[in-house]
Amino acid sequence: MSASTPKPRLLLVGGGTGLVGRHLVTEFSRDWQVVSLHRHPSPQEVAAGAEVHEVDIASVSDWSPFLEGVGMVINVAWYRTGSLRRFRPLADGLVRLVADAERARVPRFVHISVPDAPPSLETGLPYLSEKRRVDRAIEASGLSYSIVRPTMLFAPRDKLVTVMMRTMHRYHRFPMFGDGEYHISPLAAADLSRIVRRESARSDRRNVLVGGPRRWRYRDLTDTMFGALGLRPKYLHLTPRGAVRLARLLELLGSTLLYVYEVEWLLSDMLGLAPYEGLDPPLGQVEPFLAEEAMRLRGTRAAD
Ligand SMILES: NC(=O)c1ccc[n+]([C@@H]2O[C@H](COP(=O)([O-])OP(=O)(O)OC[C@H]3O[C@@H](n4cnc5c(N)ncnc54)[C@H](OP(=O)(O)O)[C@@H]3O)[C@@H](O)[C@H]2O)c1
Q1: What is the number of the ligand 1 atom nearest to the C-alpha of 56?
Q2: Domains, in order of start, for the chain
């Protein structure tokens, strides 16, 4: 692209501050004019050249001004937890976005969703039931779309892998929920951005489950994390019911470490998704990231 050719406009709904959003800004700002829309803009996305609008999605009644001249919409907005009162207005705003994007004939719509969960969570948990309402609105629209549904993501400052490593480093112990025989296939957030780029170039309508390069047995992954930290694995064994009770207690105490639904989802063995096929270079393994995190933690140990 020459310096005089204007870049096509990409509306990043949910913005470039969150885990997925900041990797998307890095991936797309080279060849797209990223228009980032969320509540708490960051200096990093501005520095990357994004045009930033401070907006709560729930309060957008007409999306047409944001959709003018837009070549693609990517949505990353969601909360990690909350009640129906919190999720419903956000989902309503996103459903309005889908309708307005269809009306504006936006060429491509990519939506980040989540993998399948146990039926009790799918219907009983606003985090999921409202997410599915948005997924279904996209599927029912006439848009060209990809609904991308990754499993657990890892990256510096993520809320899962780095928190697990920090707990192991600090206490030399880690809770093991049940027998640890269930599976997980961690995916680098940077790889998810490359996947979104690949999906953005398609012209079909599809819903794709996305796993990382290796389907780990959970307790092999936690053993590997201990190993990266130079520690012998030591577990505090909890029954599945005990694990849920622990997560419930943490929630009651206002902790953001772990939520009940995350424990139930993990124990359901529905998160060990098959790897996403077709990336070149291929998906990155988690071990180099664990080694880097371990070095970072050990380097700052005195300050902990
Ligand atoms: N992290 C994972 O392991 C993982 C795995 C599978 C799927 N996903 C999905 O991937 C997507 C992104 O996840 P993430 O981990 O990047 O989450 P995140 O770090 O919490 O980022 C979500 C972003 O959504 C924006 N947002 C939330 N509510 C908003 C509102 N009312 N109006 C405007 N913006 C709003 C937030 O920006 P502001 O706070 O600035 O508004 C935030 O930056 C989500 O749909 C999530 O379900 C994540």
Answers
A1: 32
A2: 8-143 (3.40.50.720), 155-186+213-271+280-299 (3.90.25)
